Every structure is written in C-alpha cells, then in structure tokens.
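Page 47, continued from p. 46.
Same chain as before, 81 aa.
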Amino acid sequence: MTTIIILGVAMFTFVILALVFILLAAKAKLVNTEAVTIGINGDPTLAMRVPAGSTLLNTLANQKIFIPSACGGKAAAACAR
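Result:
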C-alpha cells in the first residue's frame, strides 16, 4: 500500500514538472522579450525604442507622454465606449 502511494506521488510530481517545463519552453518561444519600437503619428523623430513587457499607457507615461484613460490602461469595458 505504501509503495502505491509513493509511486502515485512520484508520478504526480513528474507530470507537474513536465507541464511546468512545457509552459516555460512555450513562453520562451512565444513571448517577445526584445525591445520594441513605438511610433507616434508616423513621425520618425517621435519614435522610441523601449523594453517589451509593459502596457502602452505605462510606457508612454514613463516617457512623459500622458494620455487620459478611463480604465487606467487595462483595456476594460470603460475604454471601449
């Protein structure tokens, strides 16, 4: 009986670890981590290169470009109106 429990726990742990590694590999392959270029109104002098991973609203605010947003950059239903 004890062997079955230990074997079950070992298999469960193995499956969970395999899923974690699959998710990490998928994230590394699918998620952009390089810097991105943001263009404003097609003006090349206003283009900026910033690290990926932040919201557009926060990135612009960090560059001292403030845009009013009812949802705070979360793309909630209030912004879609």
